[in-house]
Amino acid sequence: MLSLLIIFVGVTWTEPGSACRPKEYTASDGQCCPMCHEGTVVQRDCTVQSGTRCIPCEAGTYMNKPNGLKRCFSCSSCAPGFGLFVKQNCTQTSDTVCDVLSGYFCKSLTDTGCSTAEKHSVCEPGQRIKQPGTSRHDTVCEACQEGSFSPDGLNCTLWTECSASQTKVQEGSLTSDVVCRNVSIRHRYTLLVPVLSLPIVCMLLLTGYCKTRRAPP
């Protein structure tokens, strides 16, 4: 069974109404009593016959300064669901120290650790990650420059340039690449055939016409 440790702090009596000295607190009757040490709180105020009676903080509580309080502070909770984990456990004289899980950054940093965290921002399509998120700073995003695209919000890639044997069927955007299509040889030359054959046809027709005109009766 856990035994109750009671600590007595030596009495220093001060007349009611006068200012209490350092390391003293004003009791409910107006008298100045010696404060309890770190890790303890007041169980009973001092009297003329005895000093302040102090008791240690229970499990799950702490007191990190000399005090005249009747209750210890509750230990902070580092909830994984809020992006936190326990870096240092709570003791009678110090609070829990929390830090952030991977993928989160600290929004409220205190002397003893992080109290609130938030997930790193995700860059949108058309943007790139300019600066990755850390445990202390959020992700920094920036828009892709003209002539490049990003479908997933990670990196920007330059648009594809269609070759001489290709034709552009879709313009590029901040989120999608240029679409090129190969032009078939048959398709390229079908239009040239009528153009090239026209002089030949004309020549044949003229030749035939001339021969017909020169034939003897």
Automatic annotation (TrEMBL):
Span of domain TNFR-Cys: 19-54, 56-98
Record's signal peptide: 1-19
Cited SUPFAM superfamilies: TNF receptor-like (SSF57586)
InterPro entries found in the cross-reference section: Fas_rcpt, TNFR/NGFR_Cys_rich_reg
SMART domains registered for this protein in UniProt: TNFR
Listed GO CC annotations: external side of plasma membrane
Disulfide bonds: C33-C46, C36-C54, C57-C72
Any one Gene Ontology molecular-function term assigned to this protein's record: transmembrane signaling receptor activity
TNFR-Cys repeat intervals: 19-54, 56-98
Keywords: Disulfide bond, Membrane, Signal, Transmembrane, Transmembrane helix
GO biological process: apoptotic process; defense response to Gram-negative bacterium; defense response to Gram-positive bacterium; immune response; negative regulation of alpha-beta T cell proliferation; positive regulation of cytokine production involved in immune response; positive regulation of T cell migration; signal transduction
Transmembrane segments: 189-210
Annotated CDD domains: TNFRSF14_teleost
Protein name (database record): Tumor necrosis factor receptor superfamily member 14
Origin species: Fundulus heteroclitus
Lineage, top ranks: Eukaryota, Metazoa, Chordata, Craniata, Vertebrata
